[in-house]
Specification:
heterodimer; A: 127 residues; Arc Repressor Mutant, subunit A; 3 strands; 58% helix; globular; B: 457 residues; mainly alpha; 3 domains
Chain lengths: 127, 457
C-alpha cells in the first residue's frame, strides 16, 4: 500500500502535459509511457489503462499525436505514438499555464512575503 | 510444468481474454490489440521479477482493473461507438467477412440496377409509366420482386431445383398479369394489381427460407424479414420523395422542366431498386440494429386496443348502424390486417418460453374486440351482397374478410388457452406461420381464377 496518492482530479489535469512531455522526448507506446510516469513520480502517480488509452486516443483525435503500428526488431508489433507540431505547441501552452500555477503555489508556500515560510503545514501532512 | 507448457497455457489465457474483451462494443479490435500488448508488457515484467506465467497473468489482469470501468472510460472518448453503425463495406470484423460484405454489396447493386433497367424495357415499346395503368399496375411487382428473390437466392445458395420453382412461379405471375386482356377500367385489373404483389412476395419468401419452407421457424424469420423490409422501404421512399421534390424545384428554378425525368425515370427506377436495396439492408443489418417492427407493434397494441374498445362501447351505447358501403368493408379489412400485423410482430419478438403476461392479455383483448367489430360489419353486409349481386371487388373483399376472421378467431382461442396456461406459445406461432400458405393460395386464386370467373369484369 502506498502511503500517499495524488488526487484523481489532479491526475486528470496533469495527464495531458505529462503524456505530451514524454512523447516530446521521442515516440513511445502505452505500456512504456505508463512505466515512465510511474518512474518519474516514484510510483506515486498511479495511472490506470482506462485513463491512459482513451487519453492517447483523444490526443490523436485532436491532432496532438500520431499513431502507427510498428514492429521494432526483436519486439512485438506495437502501436507507437509520436508528437506532432500541433502537439508541441499545445505542450508549450500547457507548460506556460502549469508554470504559472506552480510559481503561484511556490510563492504561497515558500513566499518571500512578510508572513514567513509555511513549509511546516504540508510536511506534517506528509508524515 | 515445463516452460513450453507454461507458454502455451499463457497463450490460451490471452486468447480467452481477447474473446472476453471483444464482446465490448466500446472496444474495437485495434484497442484490444493495444490493451493486449499492454497486458503482455505487464506479464513480461512480472515474470522477470520471478512470478510464474499464470501468476503473472492473473496479477496483470487484476492491475488492469475491471473491464466495466475500462469500457466506460473508452466510451467517454468514443461515444459514437455506442451508436451501432451499419458498415456498408470494409468493416472491422476481419478480412473474410469483409470480402463477403463487399461481394454482397456488389450483387445487390447488380440486382437493383437490373430492376431499374427492366422497368424501362417496356418503355422501348412505347408504354409510359403512370399512363398505361392496365400494363404497369399488374406488372409492377414483376419488375422488382424477381430481382429481390434473385439476390436472396444468391445469398442463400439455394439449390437448383428451387431456383427452377421460383422461376416457374414468377413466370406464372407474368402470365396471370398479361394473359387475360383486361380493360383499363375493370375491377379485375385493380384486383390483380393488389394481389399479385402478395402472391409474389410469398414467392420471395420461398427464396428467403430456401429448402426449409415447411418448417415454422424459417417462416417466422421471413415474417420478421417482411416487417423490417417494410420499415426500410418506407424510410427509403421518404428519402426518395425529398430527392424528387428537390430535383423538381431546383431544375424549375433554372428553367428546366424535370417532370418527364422524374415520372419516367427517377420514380419507377427508384421504386423497384428500393425494393432490392431494402431487402439487402435488412440482411446486412440483422446484427446491427434492433428490429423496429416489433417495437412499433408493442407501442401500438395498447393504443389500438383502447380505440377498438371505445368504438365497441360507442356502437353499443348509441345503437348506431355501421355504414357498410364497399369502402367500409375495405376499411374493416384493413383494420383486421393491422390487428393481425400487431399480433404477428409481437409474436415474432416474443420469447416463446416466457410465461403469459399482461401484454398477452392485452393482445387477447385487441383480437377479441377486432373480431367483435368485424362480426357486426359482416352481419350488416351479408344482406346487401344478395341485394346487388356479386362483383369481383365484393367477392375479393368478403373472401379476405373471411380469411382474416378465421385466422384471428383461432388466434384468439389459442391466446386464451395460452393465457390460461393450457397450451404453449409455440402453438400460436405455428398457427400463424402455417397460415401463410392460405394467404398465398388466396392471392393466386384472385389473380388466376377471378378474371375468367367474373367474365373479365
Amino acid at each position: 500500500m502506498r502511503a500517499l496518492k495524488v488526487a484523481k482530479d489532479l491526475v486528470a489535469a496533469s495527464a495531458t502535459p505529462m503524456v505530451l512531455g514524454i512523447l516530446a522526448d521521442g515516440q513511445s507506446y502505452g505500456y512504456a509511457i505508463l512505466r515512465r510516469i510511474s518512474e518519474l513520480s516514484g510510483g506515486e502517480l498511479d495511472w490506470t489503462e482506462g485513463l491512459l488509452y482513451p487519453l492517447l486516443h483523444r490526443l490523436e483525435r485532436l491532432g496532438y499525436v500520431e499513431s502507427s503500428w510498428q514492429s521494432v526488431t526483436g519486439e512485438r508489433r506495437r502501436k507507437y505514438y509520436r508528437i506532432t507540431d500541433n502537439g508541441r505547441a499545445e505542450l508549450a501552452e500547457q507548460r506556460r499555464q502549469w508554470d504559472t500555477v506552480v510559481d503561484a503555489l511556490k510563492e504561497i508556500w515558500f513566499g518571500r512575503g512578510d508572513r514567513g515560510p509555511l513549509t511546516a503545514i504540508p510536511l506534517e501532512h506528509r508524515a | 510444468m515445463t516452460a513450453q507448457e507454461g507458454q502455451d497455457e499463457l497463450e490460451a489465457q490471452f486468447t480467452h481474454w481477447r474473446h472476453y474483451v471483444q464482446r465490448r462494443r466500446e472496444l474495437h479490435p485495434p484497442d484490444t490489440d493495444e490493451l493486449e500488448d499492454h497486458l503482455r508488457g505487464s506479464v513480461d515484467e512480472l515474470v522477470a521479477a520471478g512470478l510464474s506465467a499464470d501468476e503473472a497473468f492473473l496479477v496483470a489482469v487484476k492491475r488492469m482493473g475491471s473491464l466495466d470501468e475500462l469500457s466506460r472510460e473508452f466510451a467517454r472518448e468514443h461515444s459514437e461507438r455506442l451508436w451501432k453503425q451499419l458498415v456498408l463495406a470494409g468493416g472491422t470484423s476481419g478480412p473474410v467477412a469483409d470480402t463477403r460484405t463487399r461481394q454482397e454489396l456488389l450483387v445487390m447493386v447488380i440486382c437493383a440496377a437490373g430492376a431499374a433497367v427492366s422497368i424501362k424495357v417496356p418503355g422501348l415499346f412505347g408504354l409510359r409509366f403512370g399512363e398505361d395503368g392496365a400494363f404497369y399496375g399488374p406488372n409492377l411487382s414483376l419488375f422488382a420482386l424477381p430481382w429481390l428473390a434473385a439476390f436472396l437466392a444468391w445469398r442463400r445458395q439455394i439449390p437448383r431445383r428451387l431456383i427452377e420453382t421460383l422461376a416457374a412461379l414468377f413466370a406464372l405471375g407474368a402470365v396471370a398479369a398479361n394473359a387475360y386482356s383486361l380493360a383499363d377500367t375493370s375491377q379485375s385489373v385493380v384486383l390483380t394489381s393488389l394481389h399479385l404483389p402478395i402472391a409474389l412476395w410469398l414467392v420471395v419468401g420461398l427464396a428467403y427460407v430456401g429448402d426449409d419452407w415447411r418448417a415454422s421457424r424459417p417462416r417466422m424469420d421471413f415474417i420478421r424479414f417482411s416487417g423490417e423490409w417494410f420499415v426500410y422501404f418506407v424510410l427509403i421512399a421518404l428519402g426518395g420523395g425529398v430527392l424528387m421534390a428537390f430535383t423538381y424545384g431546383t431544375f424549375e428554378a433554372i428553367g428546366i422542366e424535370a417532370e418527364e425525368f422524374i415520372t419516367q425515370w427517377l420514380l419507377p427506377c427508384g421504386v423497384v431498386a428500393a425494393v432490392v436495396v431494402a431487402g439487402w439492408l435488412v440482411e446486412a443489418k440483422q446484427s446491427v440494429v434492433e428490429n423496429i417492427a416489433p417495437v412499433l407493434a408493442r407501442l401500438f397494441t395498447p393504443l389500438f386496443t383502447a380505440i377498438l374498445l371505445i368504438l365497441l362501447i360507442a356502437i353499443a351505447s348509441t345503437g348506431a348502424g355501421i355504414d357498410v358501403e364497399r369502402e367500409a368493408l375495405i376499411l374493416f379489412n384493413l383494420l383486421l390486417v393491422v390487428v393481425l400485423g400487431l399480433l404477428l410482430y409481437s409474436i415474432s419478438a416474443r420469447d416463446p418460453l416466457a410465461p403469459p403476461g399482461l401484454f398477452d392479455k392485452l393482445q387477447l383483448a385487441l383480437v377479441v374486440s377486432a373480431l367483435a367489430i368485424d362480426v357486426l360489419v359482416l352481419v350488416e353486409i351479408t344482406g346487401r351482397i344478395s341485394d346487388y349481386g356479386t362483383t369481383p371487388n365484393k367477392a375479393a373483399a368478403l373472401g379476405e374478410n373471411a380469411i382474416l376472421l378465421v385466422n384471428l378467431a383461432w388466434s384468439a382461442w389459442l391466446l386464451l388457452r395460452f393465457v390460461r396456461r393450457h397450451t404453449s406459445f409455440m402453438a400460436l406461432e405455428r398457427w400463424q406461420t402455417d397460415y401463410l400458405s392460405v394467404y398465398a393460395a388466396w392471392a393466386w386464386i384472385v389473380v388466376l381464377v377471378f378474371p375468367p370467373l367474373f367474365g373479365y369484369a
